[in-house]
């Protein structure tokens, strides 16, 4: 888990002038039957036609289609940057702690000026799940998935889980510094977050004042229902990108709806942390997974 110190507007402007470099793909042949008794890593498996529509999948030994659960990791980067490789440390930690779980580390199409993240990136997550369910017999994994998302990836994980997971395959979602409510007064009125608000409006192409409903519809806080999966939230008290109200009010909403949840605010941390705080996050997440996923 690394610190994200992104300047959203600069990122958006830079990314609008550069073309994403193509990846080499090393996905498995669909005709190959994978030995379920041994662990297997499949890198850059394609789930769409564009270069960013790939994921890495880590399959444990002795897996079973009826019982093997899968973590789905979604990287951050303000919807306009970032890469699945940013989460390789978390992949390693999960492999060590949960050797019987599969792990899928996702890339998704990046947004830019004239290329809104919504619904594009939600569509990508839907395509990921469609691919995984199609490959369930080959991979020998069940349809039980747990999200772990960072920053923008946490926002996407919550939004998908709370609004778009019609089959209820997501059994747990973890948000680490994920935005939850774009109608929060800190985004709409607080000058400390004005640059963030302007960046979000720039990349979506939608003005908040003329279309606040749009921002409600992409806010996990506004779309969550009582059927949401167990959710664990981690936030920093000194975050200059995501106000603490995003976590505090999200927890209150989950409590109001009776959704199982846990919330931790690290008062002296920003948009990501290391050391003792990171170890505490891993411990709390592990306990939550053991209980709820």
From TrEMBL:
SUPFAM superfamilies: alpha/beta-Hydrolases
InterPro entries: AB_hydrolase_fold, BD-FAE-like_dom, GDXG_lipolytic_enzyme
GO molecular function, one term: hydrolase activity
Gene3D superfamilies with a match to the protein in the record: alpha/beta hydrolase
Keyword Iron-sulfur found: no
Domain (BD-FAE-like): residue spans on this chain: 56-254
Keyword Hydrolase tagged: yes
Protein name: Acetyl esterase/lipase
């Amino acid at each position: 888990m690394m610190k994200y110190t992104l300047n959203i507007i600069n990122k958006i402007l830079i990314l609008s002038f550069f073309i994403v470099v193509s990846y080499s793909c090393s996905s498995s042949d669909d005709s190959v039957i994978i030995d379920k008794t041994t662990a297997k890593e499949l890198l850059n498996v394609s789930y769409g036609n564009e270069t960013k529509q790939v994921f890495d999948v880590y399959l444990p030994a002795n897996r079973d289609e009826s019982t093997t659960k899968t973590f789905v990791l979604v990287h951050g980067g303000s919807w306009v940057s970032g890469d699945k490789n940013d989460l390789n440390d978390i992949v390693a930690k999960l492999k060590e702690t949960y050797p019987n779980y599969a792990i899928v580390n996702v890339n998704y199409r990046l947004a830019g000026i004239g290329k809104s993240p919504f619904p594009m990136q939600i569509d990508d997550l839907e395509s990921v799940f469609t691919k995984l369910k199609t490959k369930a017999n080959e991979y020998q994994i069940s349809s039980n998935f747990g999200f772990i998302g960072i920053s923008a990836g946490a926002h996407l994980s919550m939004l998908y889980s709370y609004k778009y997971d019609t089959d209820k395959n997501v059994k747990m979602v973890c948000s680490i510094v994920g935005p939850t409510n774009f109608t929060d007064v800190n985004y709409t009125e607080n000058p400390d977050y004005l640059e963030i608000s302007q960046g979000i409006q720039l990349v979506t192409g939608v003005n908040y004042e003329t279309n606040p409903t749009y921002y409600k519809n992409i806010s996990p806080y506004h779309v969550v229902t009582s059927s949401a999966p167990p959710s664990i939230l981690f936030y920093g008290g000194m975050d200059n990108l995501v106000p603490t109200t995003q976590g505090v009010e999200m927890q209150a909403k989950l409590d109001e709806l009776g959704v199982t949840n846990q919330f931790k605010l690290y008062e002296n941390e920003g948009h990501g942390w290391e050391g003792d705080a990171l170890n505490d996050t891993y411990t709390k997440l592990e306990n939550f997974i053991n209980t709820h996923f």
